[in-house]
Write a sequence for this structure.
């Protein structure tokens, strides 16, 4: 094991896959000379040359479109979109093209692309540079969506994403690039579609991913001080969702809170709560709670921003309310 | 101009015309599986000229009005008709329909339902040719409507700055649904538009397969030699409505009449006769052959089994071993 930063783990994944497969190449804005807005691709231009690390003009739609076309004709492109917010420009290429081509064309061809992008709050970057838009992509059949929380998962999942035969949206969190974690020294893959129990517990299940997974762990620590054992699930992949792992945990704890930084309405929390009630309605001791961002744009102000997104205290409170929940009969 | 070339050009155009006329017939009989179907009657010379200039390993991306592109590329009429009828033997297993018809084995990267949606894909195919050295040129077909989409600019820009082996062909049939070209964009030629990207541009008579062929052949050769993209504006006319049930009430009947007098098939036949490229016998043989192929295609499609229900559920994801 080697201790390394999240961004370095991602770079290792890119380097290893580029060494393994000559069809793998990178394209995106400022990924070459500049090394990427968040320094993930630093050094790769020097190592692999301008044919494999392509600095593109600012054309998000055509960056993703070109990735699709290259993938359809034999390449294995990894596109970087500097901020998830800018993917709005490329939604046609991702949603109408990449996600649909394999199905629409009768399985004649597939689209093995990875779209790496970066999202989330923490830098007071404002309404157009801080969103968490995973629900947009999770909603689309034909896409896979990955959102790792740890350096180890980041590396193993990115390698899997590059080897996958489908379009994968790979969501990094801007607040996680500098965190450190142990990464195995041997070659490994983390399978897409498998969640991980980040902390075992028996009283309540906290379900999260990406940066808020750490808040869930902090909340679990806080709850442990009052004798409550919270199990924390790190989803890692958001589509396909690993409901097996989620249901196995909640079957046992009978209580769940889903936590994410994306806004509340029609977010992933709604989907998970709904699936849990479908699978475990009679077994649940309390309604599944969601702790999410308020349905408000994000202010360009690090202090104000914090008021919108979940924090540890909100998670603890939601967990306590879930634990103290008693069924009240409603009379019409 | 030799006899062989003229035979081919006429054959392509006649097959496209007949295919689309038969398509409209079976549509009226309620035999199409989808309500989405756009025909290119009047525009056949563009598809014929462009595809005849392509090599077998080249790529083409196509549009919602794309039957002609696939036919001139060598598409199988039976499998095409079967696709339109939603049959299991169709090119896309009966789930793509007219608007997504594709034969990837022919280097055809798909007809596309999003106007302009495939232009970026063409850039990617050309990019991969440049990176991999596969020697292919990608021809991107699109309508005048796509010229006013943002992706058109992005794609031209990227292809030009990377000098990609791509040829962009605007089939300017004068209308994007009801909107005339003259009201969609300032009066700027395709040559001038291409100038903006410091790349060759040319405007050609889209009713003349030879003119289209010459422009396309030159552009493809230029692209293959590493000279970068060319923008071709092929000026043509959509003889019928945008789709079924569009009486084109927004068009001037006099304008329609003038364009109809320039039917690409009639024009080419007259010229071929004049120049001695083809005899009336040659033409009759070509037309009879095409007629027979169409009869056979329709029979094949009608006799084919409907797409089984399972087809609705398959191929959402490409199976990947590791995950
Ligand atoms: C992005 C997008 N906008 C609108 C439409 C609806 N639509 C389909 S075809 C069409 C007109 C397209 O005109 P043009 O590109 O000139 O092609 P033509 O139909 O004339 O062949 C429109 C508006 C669409 N399919 N995609």
């Amino acid at each position: 094991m080697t201790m390394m930063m999240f961004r370095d783990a991602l770079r290792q994944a890119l380097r290893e896959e580029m060494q393994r497969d000559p069809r793998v190449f990178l394209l995106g804005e400022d990924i070459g000379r500049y090394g990427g807005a968040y320094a993930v691709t630093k050094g790769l231009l020097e190592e692999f040359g301008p044919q494999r690390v392509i600095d593109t003009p600012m054309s998000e739609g055509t960056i993703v479109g070109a990735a699709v076309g290259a993938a359809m004709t034999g390449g294995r492109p990894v596109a970087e979109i500097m901020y998830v917010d800018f993917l709005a420009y490329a939604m046609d290429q991702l949603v109408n093209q990449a996600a649909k081509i394999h199905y629409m064309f009768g399985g004649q061809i597939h689209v093995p692309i990875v779209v790496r992008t970066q999202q989330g709050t923490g830098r007071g970057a404002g309404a157009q540079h801080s969103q968490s838009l995973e629900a947009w992509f999770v909603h689309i059949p034909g896409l896979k969506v990955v959102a790792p929380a740890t350096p180890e998962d980041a590396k193993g999942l990115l390698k899997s994403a590059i080897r996958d035969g489908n379009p994968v949206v790979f969501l990094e969190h801007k607040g996680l690039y500098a965190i450190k974690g142990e990464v195995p020294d041997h070659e490994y893959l983390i399978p897409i579609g498998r969640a991980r129990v980040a902390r075992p517990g028996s009283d309540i299940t906290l379900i999260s991913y990406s940066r808020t997974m750490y808040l869930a762990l902090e909340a679990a620590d806080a709850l442990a001080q009052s004798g409550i054992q919270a199990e924390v699930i790190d989803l890692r992949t958001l589509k396909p969702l690993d409901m097996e792992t989620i249901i196995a945990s909640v079957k046992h704890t009978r209580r769940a809170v889903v936590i994410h930084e994306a806004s509340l309405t029609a977010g992933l929390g709604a989907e998970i709560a709904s699936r849990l009630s479908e699978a475990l309605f009679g077994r649940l001791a309390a309604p599944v709670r969601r702790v999410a961002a308020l349905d408000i744009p994000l202010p360009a102000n690090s202090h104000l921003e914090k008021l919108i997104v979940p924090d540890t205290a909100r998670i603890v409170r939601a967990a306590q309310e879930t634990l103290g929940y008693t069924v009240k009969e409603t009379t019409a | 101009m030799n006899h062989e070339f003229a035979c081919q050009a006429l054959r392509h155009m006649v097959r496209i015309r007949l295919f689309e006329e038969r398509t409209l017939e079976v549509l009226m009989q309620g035999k199409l599986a989808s309500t989405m179907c756009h025909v290119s009657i009047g525009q056949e010379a563009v598809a014929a000229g462009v595809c005849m200039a392509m090599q077998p390993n080249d790529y083409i991306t196509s549009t919602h009005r794309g039957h002609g592109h696939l036919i001139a590329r060598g598409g199988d009429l039976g499998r095409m008709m079967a696709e339109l009828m939603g049959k299991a033997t169709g090119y896309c297993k009966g789930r793509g329909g007219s608007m997504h018809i594709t034969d990837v084995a022919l280097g055809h990267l798909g007809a596309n339902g999003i106007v302009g949606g495939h232009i970026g894909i063409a850039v990617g195919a050309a990019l991969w040719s440049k990176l991999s050295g596969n020697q292919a040129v990608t021809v991107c077909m699109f309508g005048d409507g796509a010229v006013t989409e943002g992706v058109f600019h992005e794609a031209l820009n990227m292809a030009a700055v990377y000098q990609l082996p791509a040829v962009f062909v605007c089939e300017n049939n004068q209308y994007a649904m009801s909107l005339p070209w003259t009201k969609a964009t300032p009066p700027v030629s395709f040559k001038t538009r291409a100038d903006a990207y410091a790349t060759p541009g040319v405007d050609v008579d889209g009713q003349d397969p030879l003119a289209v062929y010459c422009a396309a052949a030159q552009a493809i050769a230029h692209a293959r030699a590493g000279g970068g993209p060319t923008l071709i504006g092929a000026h043509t006319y959509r003889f019928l409505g945008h789709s079924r049930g569009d009486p084109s009430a927004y068009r001037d009947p006099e304008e329609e009449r003038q364009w109809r007098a320039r039917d690409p098939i009639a024009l080419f036949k007259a010229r071929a006769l004049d120049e001695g490229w083809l005899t009336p016998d040659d033409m009759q043989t070509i037309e009879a052959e095409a007629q027979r192929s169409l009869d056979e295609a329709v029979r094949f499609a009608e006799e084919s089994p409907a797409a089984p229900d399972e087809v609705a559920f398959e191929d959402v994801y490409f199976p990947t071993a590791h995950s």
In short: The longest strand of chain A covers residues 256-263.
